Amino acid sequence: MQIDFHHGVTYAVARLAGFEHEQANIIANSAQYVDDATNSGLIKFDNGALFNRIGSAHKRLDYRNFRQLANYQVWIPFHFLPGNGGLPAGQEPEGKFINKLVCRPNSYVAQEMMTECIERRHLPYSLYRLGIAMHVYADTWAHQGFAGVSHEVNHAKHLVDEQGNLDQYLNAQIERYFHKNLIERLANIFISEALPLGHGAVLGHPDKPFLKWGYTNGLNQKIIRNNPQDYLEAAEHMCLWMQRYRVGDPKAKVSALPPDDKALIAQMLNNITDAKGEMRHQRWLEILSKGKFSFGQADISYIPKGKGSWKYQALGTQKEKDSRQEVFKYHPSFLSSHWKLFHDALEAHRFHVVHELLPRYGICVA
């Protein structure tokens, strides 16, 4: 998924779940910032204070840069949550260990992640962690069938369009992107031969809400994907979990999306067909500003780096990438800044997923 869903849709769903604007804004900004927290390492202050933060993404993702992509500490806890074959803890999917790592929509693993998030809602960074969890949870729909490791399970061939016809456009796009001559390769074998990590084999297809498409995976299974349907289902379940968070009960019986709002989300997922996520995001912001949803008019924006961003407010820097040599001026307000609380939540999320949650399912990752 891209910024249109992780920020725009997440904000709308948070409001529909009952959060007020300020809370929904924190949740939505945190959900999107998972894709923009590209720096890691130590922050040094002029008074001697220190703060260590981790990253959750690689910006300007280049699928040709295989070594950079092989960062399992980023991909597994934040983008390709292992699904354990869709089975609960204590049960094993058939086949090899890789089948435990493949992402599955609304898996037991994902639901336990959400439960733990609710149980820790008393912590000062809990809303930020909810936003991070919303990103990971939503991606279990978009990234289903793929794993956040380099493995042949991510192979893809015979990509088809909505009508089941070979997608000639994607073939040409991949050829241009990788400067490969497909004529010299086996028929319909794609880039996953070189990089079977995540959904690199199909580029951005899983992340575009409007697409209906298909492919044959590395297990030689024919997969049909309906992104608008999957994305709408993700939004529905996100609303349920955010309502449970509000009442503090992961088992609470809560209501689904209001019918008119759900219909509007479905319409937008299907009809906003701009290729770039940033363009689709602007369309969502326009709809929100016009008050089309039942919660009324809302003006929101998102600034990942630079003036006005959470990082700028916390550290006073406009740089996109840190050199690790900077010494920042310390302000007491840093401890309660959005940026610091987001990074506290980011570290808490990764620790829980890697060291507590996945081991319950017999999964040990870096």
UniProtKB/TrEMBL annotation:
Top-level taxon of the source organism: Bacteria
Name the chain's protein.
Uncharacterized protein
